[in-house]
Design goal:
The termini are far apart. The protein has one domain: Rossmann fold. The chain has a 5-stranded mixed beta sheet, covered by helices on one side. The chain is 23% helix and 32% strand. 25% of the residues are buried. The chain is globular, with a radius of gyration of 18 Å. It contains 4 helices and 13 strands. This is HPr kinase/phosphorylase C-terminal domain-containing protein. One of its GO terms (molecular function) is ATP binding. Pfam families: Hpr_kinase_C (PF07475). InterPro entries: Hpr_kin/Pase_C, P-loop_NTPase.
Amino acid sequence: MPAFSSKTTHLEHGVFVAVKDVGVLIRGPAGIGKSSLALELLDRGHALISDDVVQFEVHPAQNKADSVKIIGSAPPMLQDLLAVRDIGVLDITEIFSNSAIIPAHRLDFIIQLDAERTPNRSDFTDLYAHPPLLGHKIPSQTIFAHPSRNIALIVETALKNYILYKNGQDAGRKLLVRQQQYL
């Protein structure tokens, strides 16, 4: 009989990658380019955790200063594999190396790929939505996935900007302050 587990498990559609130690779930409708984006991120030196289906578990906080951690991994059937349209299923460890695969990682950020451009924002502050996953709010950003855009570069830059934002450097707020000073 299996032992009782206090962890909450959830399967989520998407691609889970680690970009400079930031665990990123890439979501979007079928055919938008989630796996192609992951392939480009792998080529840029980042790592794949899971393609198509990600298994997430909530791990309780170790102490009061920590928040819970949501850890994602690949179901055993999908480990090390990436399915890219027009190419087929790729064994990432054979094409790149073992270092291109991470067995599990904490979820830090969600990128939502969207085929439609969202209306222009006049306010560059509060860019990050926080949709819940397993009852916990996860920072998220929607990116317009037009084929002419370099989505991998945009994702890398969005994550760098988010890290700066988390550390108190809000470029959108800085712009608003400068505009108000100018007026």
